Amino acid sequence: MAPGYLTVWPANASRPVASDLNWHTGQTVANMDVVELAPGGTIELYDASGNVDVIVDVLGYFTTATTTWTDAVPSNPSAPPPAGLNQGPIGMVYDPATNQDIVLDIMTTTSQVTTWAWNGSSWAQQPTAHSPSFFGDFSSPSNLAYDAATGTVVFVDLDEQAHPYVDTTWTWNGTDWNQQFPANEPNSVGNLAYDAATKTVVLDDGSTWNWDGTNWTRSATTTTPVTNGESMAYDPTTATVVDFGGSVSCNTQGQCTYSNGTWSWDGTSWSTLSLPTSPPGRDGAAMAFDPDLGSSGEMVLFGGYNGNAVNDT
Question: CATH no. for residue 198?
Answer without folding.
Answer: 2.120.10.80
